[in-house]
């Protein structure tokens, strides 16, 4: 299956790298383009078999699966430009959360889906969020699932939970890494530990925690219970966390949803759907 990528920004590049390194796709079956073509050429320096092309229409014509990896407000004008070159058997995949599959289907004549990846997919891990358009055939759905199974656990979601799911899967690594960074900074400020020591210990702790959860031996609440000895140090630390966190994560979801609603409103004005 030939795959085309329009856009080689952060997430587009992560998908290309991950598909190749997981053997989900051979570099010779991938064609890429970018508004700044030099960025695409840098990827070709690393994966010589990749095809780089400046003509977006030709990319569409020569490939079966087309990934649209551009900013939300750039998608509608791009789709209008590409529509004359899209066939019914094409599979068009957007990776942008504010653009809904029904909006894309209203604009193009081909099969459509939305897949929201995560930076964790770069480690061939984590979740990718999948929403299939009504036009998507069972064969196309299977192709998408197979492709993303190589680099993640694909989870099909409804449009109604897109933002919450994306906050957890896609934004979550940034949120959690911020908290761990503050954890490290506080350790350095309050104790004699060096930053280098704290970073190494925290990193290995996170890796170990992930592996522990992966085994299924403990749930998150069970982990807290196992580590927390009555009257011990961990319990005192958890009290400080309870006092500080309060409704912090509620506010995180409120802020991200407010921004999402704003983006959706702007996208609707373009698609008229």
Automatic annotation (TrEMBL):
Protein name, UniProt field: Pyrroline-5-carboxylate reductase
Family: Belongs to the pyrroline-5-carboxylate reductase family.
Known pathway: Amino-acid biosynthesis; L-proline biosynthesis; L-proline from L-glutamate 5-semialdehyde: step 1/1
EC number, UniProt record: 1.5.1.2
Keywords: Amino-acid biosynthesis, Cytoplasm, NADP, Oxidoreductase, Proline biosynthesis
Pfam family, one: F420_oxidored
Lineage, highest ranks first: Bacteria, Bacillati, Bacillota, Bacilli, Bacillales
Domain Pyrroline-5-carboxylate reductase catalytic N-terminal residues, every copy: 2-97
Domain Pyrroline-5-carboxylate reductase dimerisation: 163-262
GO molecular function: pyrroline-5-carboxylate reductase activity
Primary location: cytoplasm
Repeat as UniProt keyword: no
Annotated catalysed reactions: L-proline + NADP(+) = (S)-1-pyrroline-5-carboxylate + NADPH + 2 H(+); L-proline + NAD(+) = (S)-1-pyrroline-5-carboxylate + NADH + 2 H(+)
The species this protein was found in: Bacillus amyloliquefaciens (strain ATCC 23350 / DSM 7 / BCRC 11601 / CCUG 28519 / NBRC 15535 / NRRL B-14393 / F)
GO CC, alphabetical: cytoplasm
Residue ranges crossing the lipid bilayer per the database entry: none
InterPro entries: 6-PGluconate_DH-like_C_sf, NAD(P)-bd_dom_sf, P5C_Rdtase_cat_N, P5CR-like_CS, P5CR_dimer, Pyrroline-COOH_reductase
PANTHER family recorded: COME OPERON PROTEIN 4, PYRROLINE-5-CARBOXYLATE REDUCTASE
GO biological process, one term: L-proline biosynthetic process
Subcellular location: Cytoplasm
Purpose of the protein: Catalyzes the reduction of 1-pyrroline-5-carboxylate (PCA) to L-proline.
Positions with a binding annotation for NADP(+): 6-11
